[in-house]
Design a protein that fits this description.
The complex is a heterodimer of chains A (about 160) and B (about 180). With about 160 residues, chain A is mainly beta. Chain A is about 0% helix and about 50% strand. An eight-stranded antiparallel sheet of chain A has the order 1-12-3-8-9-10-5-6, with no helix packed on it. Chain A has a four-stranded antiparallel sheet with strand order 2-11-4-7, with no helix packed on it. In chain B, the strands form two sheets. In chain B, strands 1-12-3-8-9-10-5-6 form an eight-stranded antiparallel sheet, with no helix packed on it. Chain B has a four-stranded antiparallel sheet with strand order 2-11-4-7, with no helix packed on it. In chain B, strand 5 and strand 6 form a beta hairpin. Chain B is globular. The two termini of chain B are about 15 Å apart. The chains are: A mainly beta (about 160), B mainly beta (about 180). At the A-B interface, strand 1, strand 3, strand 5, strand 8 and strand 9 of A face strand 5, strand 6, strand 9 and strand 10 of B.
Chain lengths: ~160, ~180
Amino acid sequence: MAATYEPIATTTLASATDIITFSSIPSTYTDLVLIGNPKLSGSLDYKWYVNGDGSSGLYSQTRLVGNGSSASSGRTTGANVLYINANTPASGSVQTFIMNFQNYANTNVYKTVLVRYNDAGSETAARVALWRNTNAITSISISTDSSTFAVGSMFTLYGIKAA
Amino acid sequence: MASTYKIIDKAILSSSQASIEFTGLGSYSTTYTDLLLMISLRSDNGNYFDNLKITFNSNTTGYKYIAVGGNGSAAGSDVFTSDPADKIIGIINGDTATSNSFASGSIYIPNFSSSNYKSLSIETVNETNASSAYMRIASNMWSNTAAITSVKLQPYSGSNFLTGSSAYLYGIKNS
């Protein structure tokens, strides 16, 4: 098959950290996929933002969340950053999240992001987010509110080519 | 696709079968980082749906499951932490579902050889053009630090997957 799904960068933590940033993302792909498999040093929430923009208020999001007893939906608008989780996961827990950045380098469109978040102890969720900026996405950051991602946490960014 | 996303194994059933199992995955631990299962399944359960169960390394303990979904009239969320329901990962078609219809789904298993617990991301649907159907997004955790060397799929209520069911296992390399 054609080389349409390629790893751009990956990191497996050898020491704990509170932020992961993929920078200098090339514009040669159509879409991006970020696979996160963090283990938490503490009970913490974590969030994402792009291009170092954590203060513009240009992010919005709609979410569907199940916590094991009920389903709920909510929205966030005018945010500076967006959270990947809604219910704070336990210390030492392991999650999987998958983020799809559609058309990330197209400078004619705002950027849509699909997020699937999984923590079997607290929440499974789907989110659709928008960054109201036409700039190409050149960096993606995942950061904690407190404590750190633990050793062995893995984060990988893939690029998908439409042609 | 590139070697980053490559078929490892597949099962396409020409007769009913109690389970689908992919073994020998330890030999891929240095070749691939993540596993992806793409499924198209129908069981002999006497209902329009069944649940799908997963087992790693023939180990029957340490699983938990949480899901959110809808059936066309209501949305809800479930959590299972006790055997055998803790091994559920999603919904598939049962024997009374519309003829020739099979549930579709994907199961993503990152870092399958790591010494961390294994966290799965799952989507399954059983659309059949009937009055009710299910869609679910789900998480399952296998709280075990062993590398995954085998993956076994089984119907939860039914005894067999029916002819025409299929599962494809892909390996994804992160470098």
